[in-house]
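ok trying again, last paste got cut off:
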Amino acid sequence: MTDTLRLPERFHLTSGDRLDRPVVRYSDNGPRTAPTWVVLGGISADRHVGKWWSDLVGPGRAIDTTHQRVVSIDWLGTDPNTFPGPRPGAPRSYPLISTTDQARVLVAVLDALSIETVFAFVGASYGGMVGLAAAAAYPTRFPRLVVVSGAHRTHPMATAHRTIQRAIVDLGRAAGDAGSGLVQARALAMTTYRTVEEFEARFDATPLPDTRGRFEVEEYLTSRGEAFRDRFHPDAFCSLSHSIDLHRVDPASIEAEVDLVSIDSDLLVPTWLCDELAHGIGDTCRHHRLRSAWGHDAFLKEPEALGQLISGALLETCHHG
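nice, full thing came through this time. structure:
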């Protein structure tokens, strides 16, 4: 089931920005009497978690919708109707939305569904950051987290990559074609999601025949960028990208039981940063380190390993809780 929730007419963000008449679209699947799981992904993920994470969420999967109730949301800021639009003299045309704001929206959805406490929050990438923010702000409502490729903060090199991506969108906007800027920004982002090893194994380093010097990897990145442009608003991309860089949660404020998953080849959320988070949380955090050639995108490409981890960490507790 999917539905839409209208938020307060003037929704004040933690940054001081305001959204007028915002809405959040959400999905609610599985038996209503079953334990509730919240499942959220990266900035490009939507509420249809059973589609983009179909290897993990669905009937017979690690998160089994025949026995579990699964709630997911579209990110605040992905609906272009909520954008305030350019303001005279403003350096940007999009709102600054924090991961805490996303947690507030999620709680509003749970309230509308009369769900007081969720059994588990499973978040990957940006979704993991929102999960940490939710657990810090609402400790009794989110007692268990699985955080995959997410941490309590970003590091300067990851912020540098995203800053350049947003600048590319701004250049496109200044030229009257923000969509083209978004294509290139997404193409650049793809190089941070994957690894040198994967690209070496996947693409030929020589130019394609009869293309006047175009490369196979160039075609791939362009196609990924164009597909993203066709379904994503440039301001939504910039708003959510900026939200990642603004994300900060004090690990000591996390009271939940946390299963933290890091990927040894992740450029954006390296294992050492997850070590810092795990140390800050303390004894209630278990840090699982996975080896993968997929980099940050391993949460989409390693369903078997993640499924086994989720089953081992949470499902046994669910069946006996």
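cool. The radius of gyration is 20 Å. The longest helix spans residues 156-174.
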